[in-house]
């Protein structure tokens, strides 16, 4: 068995953009996490009333799992080797072979089966990404981008995490970059990615996506005033939990996107993009105020809360985001 | 959000871990920094955990009275609803709900029980013999 290759562990804000960034950096492509997130078109808003998680609608602040890997492949000209398995034994053997060969690989896993997560975070969430960069005896060396330090995971636990069943089941999904194009005009790629995100957020044809989605959620929150307050609290708590998903800092990925816009403004020598970044930071700050109001409503078990006021805070998020995208749209190409 | 405003509430649910995030410094430059958690985050996480704990307790009472099977108790103990449990088991929703019936539970195959036990992280014995005393 080969000595585990040196892998520079780095903590990132979000698992999927973190894994992709780390794998690309490892291969010598120097990109920041916000850059990867932005170029892959990671930002969104979606309120999906017909898809439920523990009886609550799905609220997404970023694109669905896998979108960053696909977006990176498409927009940055990176070829990924990807594999899914129906046979866990084969998945295990292939992972061992790759790792022993010195390959660092990204894996999709379920948080529920990963013992190094704090107990309070071990829900049935099947789309957590991590990197395996080596193995020693029966343990895999894992660089999990949302943790400060590398960890070791027993083969059995990792197998369970890779073959957890349920919504978005990982099916042993494994990926790593095999070819990185050097022929990419990064500024063109950035412009394109921004245009795409702006179009989706402003003009998505469904009432659940983008600005319209935020307004839709605001209307749902308003309606809570006629319902059961216990349900209302759980509903608001659920929204914030989705927003507070690791790495958003309460801003639902808005700060990460603002960091991307700022970096883009430097790369493209564009002053207006710097302004767009500032506007996006403000949007993130408003999302934080909204989250705080929801959390307060959850906490006060006896005190009354006003769904209309909370909905108003959410509308302000929508207004501010609309401001960002309209401004971005107005920029000359 | 400015780096100086990044919450450092040292929340219990993060068990001492720190998370990375992006925030601006005093000159408006974005940088990666760390947080020890935000109170708002702890409130909403504790809320859902407490909700499951209440449901687990009620289920335990009903196990004691012979009105439901231990599966409903352990399901809530592991923060799942019946649909999530069905998906994680690779079963239909109605099958899991049926397994809540004591008479059906008693006749469950060894293989199904083992799979439930594995998912709940308990022994088959503990699952079978759980009497509602926590």
Secondary-structure topology with pairs:
The complex is a heterodimer of chains A (333) and B (134).
Chain A: H1 15-26, H2 33-39, E1 43-53, E2 56-62, H3 67-76, E3 78-83, H4 88-100, E4 105-109, E5 128-136, E6 139-143, E7 151-154, H5 155-162, E8 174-180, H6 186-203, H7 210-223, H8 229-243, H9 254-267, H10 271-299, H11 307-330
Antiparallel strand pairs in A: 1-2, 3-8, 4-5, 4-8, 5-6, 6-7
Chain B: E1 19-24, E2 30-35, H1 39-64, H2 70-77, H3 82-89, H4 93-99, H5 102-106, H6 110-120, H7 124-129
Antiparallel strand pairs in B: 1-2
Helix pairs in contact in B: 1-2, 3-4
What is the oligomer described by this structure? heterodimer
**What are the segments of chain A in which pLDDT stays under 50 over at least 5 consecutive residues?**
none
Give the rounded overall mean pLDDT of chain B.
Answer: 95
Main sheet overview of chain A: 6 strands, antiparallel
Shape summary of chain B: elongated
Mean pLDDT of chain A: 93
Largest beta sheet: strand ordering of chain B: 1-2
Q: Report the major sheet of chain B.
A: 2 strands, antiparallel
Number of helices of chain A: 11
Beta strands of chain B, count: 2
- How many E strands of chain A? 8
The strand line-up of the biggest sheet of chain A is 3-8-4-5-6-7
Provide the structure class of chain B: mainly alpha
- The helical percent of chain B reads 40-55%
- What coarse outline of chain A follows from CA principal-axis ratios? globular
H/E element sequence of chain A:
HHEEHEHEEEEHEHHHHHH
Computed Rg of chain B: 21 Å
Percent of residues in beta strands of chain A: 15-25%
Distance between the termini of chain B: 44 Å
The helical percent of chain A reads 40-55%
